[in-house]
Design goal:
The protein is an all-alpha fold. The protein has 17 helices and no strands. It folds into two domains: about 80 residues, no CATH class; about 160 residues, Alpha Horseshoe (Leucine-rich Repeat Variant), CATH 1.25.10.10.
Amino acid sequence: MHSWEGDPRPEPVPEYGTIRPGSSLKLDQSIDPQAGSWRVLFAVAVGIMLAGFFATGNARAAFEEITRFLSLQGKPEPASPAVLSEHEIENLDRQTPQRQAEVLLERAVNHYEGANDQIAMRVEGWWGKLKFTPQFNSLIATALNSNDLRVRAAGIELDLAAMGAVKSPATIERLAQQAESGPQSQRVWALWELGLLGNRGVEPQRVNEILVNQLQDSDPEVRHWAVEGLAYLGTNETIAPLLKTFRDDSSPMVRERAACSLAQSGMLTQEQRRSVIPQLLDYADDTSLDAQTHGWVYQALRDITGQTLPNDSSSWRSWYDANRS
C-alpha cells in the first residue's frame, strides 16, 4: 500500500477555452470555423448518448449511489479498512523517530487498528529524539482533543517523550520544586508535565497533592495550569478540587477551564464526568453564582450528557431523575 503524504490534490487547471483573469483574446488570434463546427456536432452527439444512458434505471441508480457518497451528510463512509498494513509497518523502520511518531500519531487520531500498539512498542526508543515542530505540535493537540481516551493517551505519551520527561519519582519531586517557585513559564510547564506523568501512573497521589496545593496560588495563570494538570491526571481524586475551583475561583478564566475539565477536556472518563451531574444541578440553583458561571454549568451539562435542554434547572432535574442509573 502506498502511503500518501501532503495534499494529494493537483493544482487547479482552467477549463479548455476559458480566459483566465488578467488575460484577453488578441485580435490576431483567429478561430477556425470548421474546427468549431465539428466540436459543436461532437458535443451534441455526446449529449444524446449520455441522455440515453441516464434514462436507464441502472444508470440512475449508479448516479444516485455516487452522489450519496459525495454528500457531506449521513453516517461516516470508510474509505478503506482502518488497519495498519504490514508494508506500512515495515516502512516505519526506515524512517526517522520523528517521522515514525508523526505517522503513527496521525494514524492513531484516525483510529487505525494497531497504531496505538506501535506507539506503545516504540515510544521508549523515541525519548530525546523528538522535536516540537509545528506539525508535531498540531498532531499532539489533535490527539489530546480526540473523543477517544486511548488516542489522548497516545498524545500524552508522545508529549512526554518529546519533553524527555523520565517516568520516575525523582522527576516528580524535581517538577514539584519547579512548580512552587521560579519564573511563571517554568511553573506552568511543570504543572502540565506533572499531570501527564501522573496520568501515566507515576506517583498519581503525590501529583494530585502538588496540583491541588497550586490551586491556592495568587497567580491565576498558575491556578489555570494546576487545573489543566488535574484534568489530565484524571483520577477520582481530581473531581472534588475541580468542582470547588469551578464554583469558587476568583478568575473567570480559571472557572471556565475547571468547567471544561469536568465536562470534556482531559482524561476523565464518561462515567467520572456523569458523576458530577448532581453537583452541577446544585450549582444551577445556586443564586450566589453569577450569570456567566450559570451559563458554564448548563454548557457542561450539555457536553456531559449530549442533551440539548434549555438553561433551566427544573428541566435538567426532570431529565436526570428519569435517566439516572
